[in-house]
Amino acid sequence: METLQPAREQKANRVINILSIAIPVAVAILLGIRQKVDLGGWTTYLPHINAVINSLTAVLLLMGLYFIRQQNVEAHKRTMLAAFTLGSLFLVSYVLYHLTNNSTPFGGQGWVRPVYYFLLISHIVLSVVVVWFVLRAVYFALSGQIQKHKQTVKYAFPIWLYVSITGVVVYLLIKPYYVH
């Protein structure tokens, strides 16, 4: 059935809206904390792990698109839930890194500098925006509201794919400046 009871739908929308605001705000607050927590040297490897997570997420997103175009709904569902899980894992890892380590300044000069900052800023802005779209897309899919799911992923998919890919590109551009 395409529509749920209005009260249940309102509750889901409220939770999605709250999470879509709370997650970026919490991340911003955690990034602003100057006193870092010492969890050990292993946390310096998290940016490298995050790049792998973002790469795998991008691959899974493309596989999910392939599967749905092949009308393999079950493979699409498994693949997209795996991408969502990786995205959640990335968020935890990203927060852990910035809670325990100072941000790395970009040292590149010349033409690469504005390219880096354009990619970084667009990545950050769209990573905030995509949370709402992805949560709605997952909710609509899992609640059987396939038409609403399709409408949402028209926006969610390209934004999520862009955020995943630019996350890796930004990582590759700043990688030479990480200090271990």
Automatic annotation (TrEMBL):
UniProt keywords, alphabetically: Membrane, Transmembrane, Transmembrane helix
Pfam families per the UniProt record, alphabetical: DUF420
Residues annotated as transmembrane: 12-33, 45-68, 80-100, 115-135, 155-174
Keyword Transmembrane: yes
Name of this chain's protein: DUF420 domain-containing protein
Organism, as annotated: Spirosoma liriopis
